[in-house]
Amino acid sequence: MTSNSEVLGVDALIETDSKILGQVQKDLSQEYIRFMSRLMKERLGTQAGGSTSAFDQARKSVPASPGPTKSS
Amino acid sequence: MGAKSMVSSTAAIEADEGVLAFDTVFRKTAPYPHFISPRFYTERFAETLLAWLELGADWRLKETPLFAQYELGFGKFRHCTEIQGLWDPAVLARLRDQAGRAFGVPVSARINISAHKLITGQHGSIHTDNEPGETHRLVVQLNRGRANDSGGNLVLLSGPAPADMAVVFKQASNSAVGFGLGPASHHAIGRVRTGTRFTVIYTFLSEAATDAKYNYFVAS
């Protein structure tokens, strides 16, 4: 395990490398697009069939956000 | 005061001193108020807890369209004496007090403690965790060293879209991030590229949290 016996400064805890930041944002964007695509498909499916989707179940957990609970 | 309570009190103090460090906090305001603590547990307890997470834990896979991760709630592991300092009432009392100072508002003595394990490919998309029963979240990272490009970073955002990315935290083991929960507390977990990402999550509950929904611990 990384030793933190010498307490790290805040700069050591926040990512500033532009390459890493770019990769993180790219990953978030891909997940966002994947989620929105699925949402669109499920909404179309719900309109056609009226079934309760996995998205609906997740959505119920956190009505004010696009996400369910505790994924920190 | 009888001898028994004196012994209990001494044991509680020892448990407190042997578990939490949480002595340094950096407060930040953007994209919303949060804090970072570079050393949350004592070195010894961090090692004990990480070893337990790696070997002894009974994980449950949870997958939704928004996230994929393994989870556990410590409320089901009260019999695990090697990590019982995690929910010791005196330890939680100190945590509550220090977290309250760090957040700038008092927090509840009712605290839910859980853990997450994310392996390669798992992630958590942008969300808020804006639940009526939950007021604040504190996330502790535990690992044996994760490369900067290993994925699984905790990200805070100023809004619901990837372009709103504001802060990306490195994965320094035993560091902690705390933030209030509400409609603006957008955050995410980047996709894990290599290795395993462990976190321990403390959730401070509100009066709206019911005993039926939360298997929580109580600070003394």
End-to-end separation of chain A in angstroms reads: 21 Å
What is the H/E string of chain B? HEEHEEHEEEEEEEEE
> Which chains share the greatest interface?
A-B, 45 and 62 residues
Give the count of helical stretches of chain B. 3
- Beta-strand content bin of chain B: 25-35%
Q: Supply the helix-strand structural class of chain B.
A: alpha+beta
Q: Report the structural category of chain A.
A: mainly alpha
Computed Rg of chain B? 17 Å
**What is the β-strand count of chain B?**
13
Please mark out the parts of chain A with pLDDT under 50 across 5 or more consecutive residues, or reply none.
51-57, 59-69
**What share of residues of chain B is helical?**
10-25%
Return the average pLDDT of chain A rounded to an integer. Answer: 71
The number of helical elements of chain A comes to: 2
Shape of chain B: globular
Radius of gyration based on Cα positions of chain A: 19 Å
Order of helices and strands of chain A: HH
The main β sheet of chain A shows up as: none
Q: What global shape of chain A is seen? A: elongated
